[in-house]
From TrEMBL:
Keyword tags: DNA-binding, Phosphoprotein, Transcription, Transcription regulation
Gene3D superfamilies named among the record's database cross-references: 3.40.50.2300
UniProt source species: Actinoplanes awajinensis subsp. mycoplanecinus
4-aspartylphosphate: residues bearing it: D56
Protein name: LuxR family transcriptional regulator
Any GO BP: phosphorelay signal transduction system
Gene Ontology MF terms in the entry: DNA binding
Length: 216
């Protein structure tokens, strides 16, 4: 199995270097580049094709929110996972970055073990923040739900149940218990939902649900 490749983006050189040392010391993870602003991050994502980008929010030239938007607007293939680094819990900018495609956020005072686990988790397509935190962030950013698109209405009844469970932050194991099915069946449903709604991962299912008022 190939190493998870990581691009570290932060305007503080010392912080970037420290994160790089921590991650490079972990088996199965390789830091392939660093950037000091969002513009360089966008360029390096195109050049290096990293699996995961650790993205600071507040930077000169271009901030992490706009960089995240541009990275996902370019639809990189294979898809990159952006993990936001922030000093403040439940940061409004972090919420906006998640709406643009980021897989979650991590506080800068996190431990090396938590950092490593977060990189592995987002690479696997998971969210990196508690379901309650995600709900709090997204609820404040979708005051008026958009119309429900035809793609959602085309989901089967079972797929809609699984969709809402994923949007609530349940794991595949928890969903399996809730719908009295095997974990492999849940994975099949989740894969079908992502494909039919043209979404990248479970975080985007939660964003989609809040955006269209599907959890009320």
């Amino acid at each position: 199995m190939n190493d998870i490749t990581v691009l570290v983006v932060d305007d503080q050189e010392l912080f970037r270097a420290g994160v790089g040392v921590i991650l490079d010391a972990q088996p199965g993870i390789t830091v392939v580049g660093e950037a000091g602003n969002g513009a360089d991050a966008v360029r390096l994502v195109k050049e290096l094709r990293p699996d995961v980008v650790l993205m600071d929010l507040r930077m000169p030239v271009m901030d992490g929110v706009e960089a995240t938007r541009q990275i996902y607007a370019a639809a990189p293939s294979p898809p990159v996972r952006v993990l936001v680094l922030t000093t403040f819990n439940l940061d409004d900018r972090a919420a906006t970055a998640i709406r643009h495609g980021a897989s979650g956020f991590l506080l800068k005072d996190t431990t090396p073990a938590q950092l490593t686990d977060a990189v592995r988790s987002v690479h696997a397509g998971n969210a990196v923040l508690a379901p309650n935190d995600l709900t709090a962030l997204l609820t404040s950013h979708f005051p008026a739900p958009r119309p429900v698109p035809d793609a959602y209405l085309a989901l089967t009844g079972k797929e809609r149940v699984v969709f809402r469970a994923v949007a609530r932050g349940l794991s595949n194991v928890e969903i399996a218990v809730e719908i009295f099915a095997g974990e492999s069946t849940v994975k099949t449903h989740v894969g079908a939902i992502l494909r039919k709604l043209a979404l990248r991962d479970r975080v985007q299912i939660a964003v989609f649900a809040h955006e269209h008022g599907l959890l009320s």
